[in-house]
Every structure is written in C-alpha cells, then in structure tokens.
Amino acid sequence: MKNITLFSSPLEQFEILPVFSLYMGGLDFSITNEAVILFLIFFFTSTFFYSAFKQSDSTLYVVPHRWQVIIEIVYKMVLSMISDNISGSKGQFFFPLVFSIFFLCCKFKFNWSCSV
C-alpha cells in the first residue's frame, strides 16, 4: 500500500503558476493565476461601481438603490474614521490617499482569501 501524505508547504498557496503560456520574441507573456484573480477583482469592482450610476448621464441616482447605499456607507465610514482621528479640514486633505489604501487592503485580503 502506498503511503500518501497530505501535508504541503504553507507557502504553496502563494505560488504563481502559468495558466496559459505565451512566448513571443524571447519574452514571456504568460497569463498566471495571479493575473486571473486580479482581472476578476477589477471586473467585479468596476461592475459594482458602474452599477451605482445612471447610464444616461453618469450621475448617481436620486433615490439610491442597494449598490449606491453600500458605496456611500463605505465612503462615509472611511471619511468618519479620518475626521475622528485627524482634526477638521486637515483630514479632508488625506482622504483620497486613505480611501485608496483602504480599498487596496481590501483587495489584498480578497486576493489572499481566493488563493487559500
């Protein structure tokens, strides 16, 4: 009877493996598992934000629907965290940076949970 071990390296989840290999002119243009996950994250995030806007004039709906409410909740949550920790209008100056870092951390968390 063959002894099979189910143990693998804890770093195995971080391996970047080619899904589709393409070599042109000595350059490697392979599509990897990381590229597929990043594309899916970009697609779902773009679709999520695109669905919050009217198609006719690219403005937010007057009567918010579910997606817009979720986007506004996240926006207000990050804005209130900044306003509470950085006094007054100085916090508004750092808001775009902190908001971008917040979504970057969310992306890394989602990316890590997809690869586990």
Topology, please?
Elements: E1 18-20, E2 23-24, E3 27-28, E4 31-32, H1 33-50, H2 66-85, H3 89-115
Antiparallel strand pairs: 1-4, 2-3
Fold and architecture overview:
This protein has 116 residues and is mainly alpha-helical. It has one domain (17-115). Helices cover 56% and strands 8% of the residues. The chain has helices at residues 33-50, 66-85, 89-115; strands spanning 18-20, 23-24, 27-28, 31-32. The longest helix is centred in the last third of the chain and has 27 residues, at 89-115. The mean pLDDT is 77.
Give the low-pLDDT segments.
none
How large is the count of helical segments? Answer: 3
- Our count of domains comes out at 1
Secondary structure: number of strands: 4
Indicate the mean pLDDT: 77
Task: Sum up the structure in keywords.
single chain; 116 residues; 3 helices; 8% strand
Question: What's this entry about, in short?
Answer:
The protein is mostly helical and 116 residues long. The protein has helices at 33-50, 66-85, 89-115, and strands spanning 18-20, 23-24, 27-28, 31-32. A hairpin with a 2-residue loop joins strand 2 (23-24) and strand 3 (27-28).
